[in-house]
Amino acid sequence: MATIRPFAALRPPKQYVEQVSCLPYDVMNHREACAMAAGNPSSFLHICRADIDTSEEAIHDTITYEKSRENLEKFIQEGFLVREAAPCYYIYRQIMWGRVQTGIVGCASVDEYQNGTILRHELTRKEKELDRINHFDTCSAQTEPVFLAYRKHEGISTAIREWIKFHKPEYDFKSEDGVTHLLWPVTDPGVIDTIRRGFEEVPALYIADGHHRTASSAAVSAKRREQHPDYTGEEEFNYLMAVTFCDEDLFIMDYNRVVSDLNGLTPEQFTDAISAAFTVTPAPAGAPYAPRTKHEFGMYLNGRWHILTAKPGTYDAGHPIQSLDCAILQSNLLAPILGISDPRTSPRIDFVGGIRGLEELEKRTKSGVAFALYPVTMADLFHVADSGEIMPPKSTWFEPKLRSGLFVHEIER
What we know:
This protein is an alpha+beta fold. The chain has 2 domains: about 5-250 and about 400-410, no CATH class; about 255-375, no CATH class. Helix content is about 30%, strand content about 25%. The protein has 13 helices and 21 strands. The protein has helices spanning about 15-20, 30-35, 45-50, 60-75, 110-115, 125-140, 155-165, 190-200, 210-225, 265-275, 325-335, 360-365, 380-385, and strands at about 5, 10, 80-85, 90-95, 100-110, 120, 140, 145-150, 170-175, 180-185, 205-210, 240-245, 250-255, 255-260, 280, 295-300, 305-310, 350-355, 370, 395-400, 410. Strands 1, 4, 5, 6, 8, 9, 10, 11 and 12 form a 9-stranded mixed sheet that branches. α4 (about 60-75) crosses α6 (about 125-140). It is globular.
């Protein structure tokens, strides 16, 4: 049983939503955030990236977290964020490249994250956790949602379809990255109950994106529970804001690799070395090569594209991790041949999300080599999480990204 409950969000009035909303805090650096918010005092970046109002050196300082809280309170006072009159769900739809994904905005249970009803597939980094812990704790609000997925439930899907069919969206705008965003508040008590009961029949939720935000929300919840030993479990700090999508709607893009050098090998020596585990053939001339199936890779080396195909016996096809292409590449090539034993920490490897295109790999590859991977599937992600395993780093790249500033979840101080 999964819990997704309604809540009274802080959100912008529709006349302000385009100028308030922004990309997520962690897809940009300080300089890029400053440029995005330039000339727009109502950009939500002033809340989720308040370092644009302090300094790059103070990103993780108390002064920046305090500035986030100050800006949040200012947005409320000036009417850029308004508190919903009563708890409700929100239907959030995104359209990108003609693809549609539609989710429910609500609050998931911190306890279900702790007991494994909400399953994870990535490790978190303590410094990134601490940043959002300090941010959420100081603001007494979860300013950006977690991205959850679930296996399709027909009752929830029907409720979403019927509400959209008979109601106009509150928000309907296209952001600067070309993504259309629509939002419908679901205020009818009967429909709210239908959605709530639908999620109670969902056996598990899966973190698609936002492992650090989830862990940080849980840490702040634990702190609040210590501060309020008489808590009932109904307080908002027991819940974390999430957008929850049916798996059939979701789109995972490729997450590619660029290595800065060949570990002392010539291109010919490198090609000979990888031939033990991969079949190497020239790719058709004229364009970058995107893999067409699992266990096939595009390789850009010495100004040319090649096709790598993993040879049978070089991986365990039945293992949830070892059968992933990123793991096959790591265990058969990156570690033994290029000497990258820990891709999390090696300065010689870079990761490029598929949204940037394969031409980006060509631009970044000078004296090294780049690899284009076939995208991980939702079935892969579910298999890994259900097995209690952890995916290799930089395995999944979801698009489109959830827009920030459309809803905020307040928690008690």
